[in-house]
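I hope you will forgive my troubling you with a question about protein structure. Here, with my thanks, is the record as I have it:
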Amino acid sequence: MLTSVLSHGPGGRWPRHTHALRPEGWLGTVLKGGYVVELEPALVERVDLRIEGERIVARGPDLTPGPDDEVVALSGKLVFPGLVSAHHRLYAVLGRGMPRPPLETYQEILEQVAWPYENALDLDAVQVAGCAGGLEALQCGTTTVCDLHSSPKAISGSLVRLARGLHEVGVRGVLAYAVSDRQGALGREEGLEETVSFAKKAKGRFRGQVGAAPCFTIGPDALSGLAEALKALGDGGLHLPLAEDPLDERLSNENYGASPVSRLLEAGLLSPKSQLAHVGHLDWADLAQVIATGAWLVHTPRANQGLEVGYAPALKFGARATLGADGVSADLFAEAQAAYLRSREAGQPIDVLRYLANGHRMASQIFEASVGPMREGSLADLLILDYLPATPLTAENLAWHVVFGLGSRHVEAVMVDGVWRMWARRPLSVSPSVVAEQAREAASAVWARMAEAAKK
């Protein structure tokens, strides 16, 4: 039996097995003396957990470790479920702070910044973004990232390269390529092939989905292709942004004679496996139809603020609403805080714990395994938080601590799939300085290609 504490120095050790490769015969890890947190129903309980392989196998007030178990002495620290970003844009990490002209409208941002940026991505940049964005997620306590990717000049192989970047860090990835007609029929078909082929071969910590760009960029042939792709994958989930700005409905009606929701429903594309991000500009009739399909609605308050597209009515999103970071940092603690505070400002306060817990329910559906509950049989995706509350922490006031106290600064260790990926605030499989240097080089190259394209 080996005892570890979350420090490296006098009295502390690194965990015995910190990387993906382990000897034959899994050794158990026992987390002792911590406060285990569950989100819905809320629970804060001083209890031990035992992890074996990729799962939690025992829970109790005073578990007895086996002779080959590693024991982590937590001394009152929190054991918190790993967080889920249900709509993410990993590639955006390389665009942070890039030169851009002053723009006023959503359409100008798309046409003069977002789409030229996507066009400038190559496969090397995609992989670097996966690693850099994945590292940021890990350090923030986000263990599952549902990414909707687009790199129109480098489509084939892009999701595999994105997965390689994430794999270096060790977080979970649910990846989709955003199919669009912006690059014509060839780009559309290549996007469909990429999103389907990746989904068919994804395994382990990775899953694939069918992805789509905003509805106003998708014509009838693309809608048919998306329906066929879903059937090819056994009616898997569709991941797309919906009504982020009124432009989505206006151009859908102008170009195709129907609203985004009408077109999606007519094509049979919405189901309980769908993930619809933003959902900020739908009338009540359309929103009610979307909710009736059972789709997951992903609220992205910080990204919406950044683009100045208005506040999405999150309280009206129904029982299957959750959170995503989109193109901003993968800090789901910050996202939850922004979501709650903006909802209060709008006079429509949301249940922030339910929103976070729904991320786990959605991930459980995708991976066909329990993700989130700190219970026997669940996948061991968890955080150790060095949070010393100034007031009592109970199930009744957990939401207040999440909103007003807890943050990514408290993330001390991260386990994904039963493997420690960060320990004593240090990532264990990558060097942050090396990842940052590679990302800066890749970002400079992408920005240079954007500048060159703008001259033509």
